[in-house]
Specification:
Structural class: alpha/beta
Distance between the termini: 41 Å
Helix content: 25-40%
Largest sheet: 7 strands, mixed
Shape: globular
Number of strands: 22
C-alpha cells in the first residue's frame, strides 16, 4: 500500500510540474500522459501551443530528443514550400543528339531525369502516360518518325537509391523505394505469388505474375508457413532480387508489392513501346545509365511535374517516402556537399536559430531511426510554417490530412470529436502526430511523440484520451 501511495503521489507531483499554463479541466490531460508512461515504460514528448498568444498550454519532455518517424515529412514539405513555392515543378528535359533529316533522327534520344518522383505515379492517374505522350508529340512536331540510335535514360542522382541507415526489410518494400534521377510508377511493382498444392497439402510457392517491362530477375526462396513473413532483398540499380520468408499455406494469390531497384529501365521500356504505337521506331536497344553523363545535345522538350503543393499533399496524406525524399532534395544547394538530411537540418537550424542538439536528420522521409528532434523544435517549425495567426495563412496545412476524414489519420478518431489537421508517423516502437487543432474558435499547435511503447496501439489510445480531455466538446 505504501508503495502504491508513493507512486501515485509521484505521478501527481510530476503532473503539476509539467503544466505550463493549462486550460482549466476537471481532469488534467497530462495525467493521461504520465499514467501511460508509467504503465508502458515508454516516453511521450508533448507540446500544445495556443496560436493567439504563442502560449504553451501543455508540455511534457518537450526538450528531449525523440525519433519522429514520418513527422520528418512536415519538415521536408514545409521547407520546400517556403523555399521554392507551391507552384514549383520538377523538370525532366529531353534532348536529341544528332541531326534530323527527312523524318529521321540520326543519333540518340536522351531523357535526363532530375529527380521528379511523380512520373507515372498511381496517385496521379491523369499523368500515367503523360511523359510518353508529350515525348511522342514533341518528336512529331520535330518531324521525327525514326531514330537510328538509342533511347538513353540518364538516371543519375546524388544520393542514388536508399539511405544506408534504412532497415533491410524496408528497402525491399514499395514504401521504402529508393530515389533515382528517373523515377517511375512510385518505383514500385506488382508481384503476385501463390501456393502450389499437391493432392493433400501445399507443396511450394510460385511466382504467378509481374510486369515483364520491369526486367527484374526474381530469385524465389519463399516457403509456406503459418504467417506472412515474406521479404524482398534487393540492391538499388541492380535488376536482381531475392524473395525470402514464408507465406500462409492458404494463400492462392498475394501481391508482395516490392520496390523497383531499376525504375529507369522500366520507364524506358514503357516509353519505347508507346513511341512505337505512335509510329516512331528506334533502331537500337534501350540504354540506361545511373552514372553522371557528359553534355546531352539539343533540347527537344521539357516535361514538368504537377505543382509542388500538389506533390506535398500526396506526400503528407499518403505518407509517401519517395515523394518526401525527392522534395527534401530541393533544399540541397548547387555544389554543396551534403546529404538530404544534412541540408534539411541546416535549413531549419539556420532559419530558426536552433540549438545544434535539438534537431539532427539523416533523411527527408523519416524512415531512418537516426532522425532525432525535440517536440519543442518541431513546435517552432509549425509556428514558422503558419505564415500568420491561423494555419490556413501558410501553405503547409493544406497538405495535411484532416483527423477522422483523410489519409493516415482517418481512423484515429472521429472528425466530430476534434477538428485537427495532423501528420502521423509510425514505425516499430514509435507513434507520433503533429499539426494544428481548432477548438472553440482558437487554433493550437500540437506535437505528440511516443517512443519506446510496446505497441503503437497504446500510444494512439493515449493520444485519443489526451485530445478528448484537452479539447472537450461542449456539453449539450
Amino acid at each position: 500500500m505504501t508503495k502504491t501511495i508513493r507512486r501515485y503521489t509521484s505521478l501527481l507531483t510530476l503532473a503539476l510540474l509539467h503544466i505550463c499554463s493549462g486550460i482549466a479541466q476537471t481532469t488534467n490531460p497530462l495525467d493521461v500522459i504520465l499514467e501511460a508512461e508509467a504503465a508502458s515504460g515508454g516516453r511521450i514528448g508533448l507540446e500544445v501551443i495556443r496560436c493567439r498568444d504563442w502560449q504553451s498550454v501543455y508540455c511534457h519532455r518537450e526538450d528531449e530528443r525523440m525519433t519522429p518517424a514520418s513527422l520528418v515529412k512536415i519538415l521536408s514539405t514545409g521547407a520546400a514550400l517556403q523555399q521554392r513555392g507551391g507552384a514549383y515543378r520538377f523538370a525532366t528535359p529531353i534532348y536529341t543528339k544528332g541531326r534530323i533529316e527527312q523524318g529521321t533522327l540520326h543519333g540518340d534520344l536522351i531523357v535526363h531525369g532530375m529527380g521528379d518522383p511523380s512520373i507515372g505515379s498511381q496517385y496521379l492517374p491523369q499523368d500515367s502516360l503523360r511523359l510518353g505522350l508529350e515525348l511522342a508529340d514533341a518528336l512529331g512536331r520535330a518531324g521525327v518518325q525514326r531514330i537510328t540510335g538509342r533511347l538513353i535514360i540518364d538516371a543519375w542522382q546524388a544520393e542514388l537509391g536508399v539511405h544506408p541507415s534504412w532497415m533491410l526489410e524496408d528497402i525491399g518494400a514499395a514504401y521504402g523505394a529508393g530515389l533515382y534521377g528517373l523515377n517511375y510508377a512510385d518505383n514500385a511493382l506488382d508481384l503476385y505469388v501463390g501456393v502450389v498444392r499437391g493432392k493433400r497439402k501445399a507443396t511450394s510457392v510460385k511466382i504467378l505474375d509481374w510486369d515483364r517491362d520491369s526486367s527484374i530477375q526474381w530469385r524465389n526462396e519463399l516457403r509456406t508457413g503459418k504467417r506472412n513473413t515474406a521479404m524482398i532483398l534487393l540492391t538499388p540499380t541492380q535488376a536482381q532480387a531475392r524473395i525470402t520468408g514464408l507465406i500462409p499455406r492458404s494463400t492462392d494469390r498475394l501481391n508482395l508489392r516490392p520496390a523497383n531497384p531499376d525504375p529507369a529501365t522500366y520507364a524506358g521500356q514503357k516509353l519505347m513501346r508507346l513511341l512505337q504505337e505512335h509510329g516512331i521506331s528506334i533502331n537500337k536497344p534501350l540504354q540506361v545509365s545511373y552514372k553522371p553523363r557528359p553534355a546531352r545535345g539539343t533540347l527537344l522538350h521539357t516535361y514538368y511535374s504537377q505543382p509542388l503543393d500538389t506533390l506535398a499533399r500526396i506526400t503528407n496524406h499518403r505518407s509517401h517516402n519517395l515523394f518526401a525524399e525527392a522534395i527534401a532534395s530541393l533544399l540541397k544547394h548547387d555544389g554543396a556537399d551534403m546529404s538530404r538530411g544534412e541540408a534539411l537540418t541546416k535549413y531549419w537550424r539556420d532559419k530558426l536559430s536552433l540549438a545544434s542538439n535539438s534537431i539532427s536528420l539523416a533523411d527527408g522521409s523519416g524512415l531512418s531511426r537516426l532522425n532525432q528532434i525535440t517536440p519543442a523544435t518541431l513546435s517552432l517549425t509549425l509556428v514558422d510554417l503558419m505564415g500568420g495567426l491561423r494555419p490556413h495563412d501558410g501553405a503547409l496545412v493544406e497538405s495535411l490530412p484532416q483527423l477522422g476524414l483523410d489519409g493516415t489519420v482517418r481512423s484515429l478518431m472521429g472528425a466530430e470529436e476534434v477538428t485537427a489537421y495532423l501528420k502521423s508517423g509510425s514505425m516499430r516502437g514509435v507513434q507520433c502526430y503533429a499539426g494544428y487543432v481548432e477548438h472553440e474558435g482558437e487554433w493550437y499547435i500540437l506535437v505528440y511523440m511516443a517512443n519506446g511503447f510496446a505497441t503503437n496501439r497504446e500510444a494512439r489510445e493515449t493520444l485519443r484520451q489526451f485530445l478528448r480531455l484537452a479539447f472537450p466538446q461542449p456539453r449539450s
